[in-house]
Design brief:
mainly alpha; Cytochrome Bc1 Complex, Chain D, domain 2; 53% helix
Length: 217
C-alpha cells in the first residue's frame, strides 16, 4: 500500500511540474561537467528522502523498471540528473523532479547514494551469450567488450567517472529497457553516441541475454 501511495504522489507531483515548467535548453557535456562537484552524503541523505520512495533508502529500488543507485558513481548520478534537467535525457517523472533541485542538492544526493553498498545481483549471472558479449564483445560487428568500459563484473572502472556506470547487479528490466532505448535512439546521452552505436547492432535475444547476465552479478 505504501508503495502504491508513493507512486501516486510522485505521479501527481510530476504531472504538476511538467505542466508548469518550461523546457530546459540542452547543455553541452562541458557545461554539465562544470556543475558536477563533490557532494555531502549526510546532506544528501536528508535531501534524497523523496528519491528514496522509488530508489530505496540505500539505493535498492522498489520496482524492476527503476534503477538501483546504491554504490553508483556520484558523478554519473549527478550527470544523469543534469541531463534530465536539461532535456538531454527524458523521463516523465525524472525530468520533472530534477527541476526541483539545484546543483548543490544534486551533488549531495549523488554522494549519498554513491556512499551506499554497491548494488549486486543474486549470483545467477551465468547466461553464456550475455557473458560472452560482456567479456569479449564481437569484433566482427565492431562491438567492444562491455567490460572495457564497465569493469570486471560490471562493477565499474574508476570512481571519478561521469560516463561509464556500474551495471553489474542492476535491475534486469531496467537494463533491458535502457539497451532498447539506446538502440531506438530514444536515449542518446552517452559520449559520442557510443551506446547507440553498440546497441543498434544487438538483437532482442542479445539484449535479453546481457540484461539477464548483468542483473545476476
Amino acid at each position: 500500500m505504501k508503495r502504491i501511495q508513493n507512486s501516486l504522489v510522485i505521479s501527481m507531483v510530476a504531472a504538476t511540474l511538467l505542466a508548469s515548467t518550461a523546457a530546459y535548453a540542452a547543455e553541452s557535456a562541458n557545461d554539465i561537467k562544470q556543475r558536477i562537484g563533490r557532494g555531502n552524503p549526510a546532506a544528501g541523505k536528508i535531501r534524497s528522502q523523496f528519491c528514496q520512495g522509488c530508489h530505496g533508502e540505500v539505493g535498492l529500488s522498489v520496482e524492476d523498471l527503476i534503477p538501483n543507485l546504491g554504490g553508483q558513481y556520484a558523478q554519473y548520478i549527478a550527470k544523469q540528473l543534469h541531463n534530465f534537467q536539461s532535456g538531454a535525457r527524458t523521463h516523465q517523472i525524472m525530468s520533472a523532479v530534477s527541476r526541483t533541485v539545484n546543483d548543490t542538492e544534486m551533488n549531495d544526493i549523488a554522494a549519498y547514494f554513491s556512499s551506499q553498498n554497491k548494488m549486486h545481483g543474486n549470483g545467477s549471472g551465468n547466461n553464456p551469450v550475455g557473458k560472452n558479449l560482456f567479456l569479449k564483445g564481437d569484433a566482427g560487428r565492431n562491438i567492444p567488450p562491455c567490460m572495457s568500459c564497465h569493469g570486471e563484473n560490471g562493477k565499474g572502472l574508476a570512481p571519478n567517472n561521469a560516463t561509464n556506470p556500474v551495471i553489474g547487479g542492476q535491475r534486469k528490466s531496467y537494463l533491458r529497457a535502457q539497451l532498447q532505448h539506446w538502440r531506438s535512439g530514444e536515449r542518446s546521452n552517452s559520449p559520442g553516441g557510443v551506446m547507440n552505436k553498440v546497441a543498434k547492432t544487438l538483437t532482442d535475444a542479445e539484449i535479453e541475454a546481457l540484461a539477464d547476465y548483468l542483473s545476476g552479478l
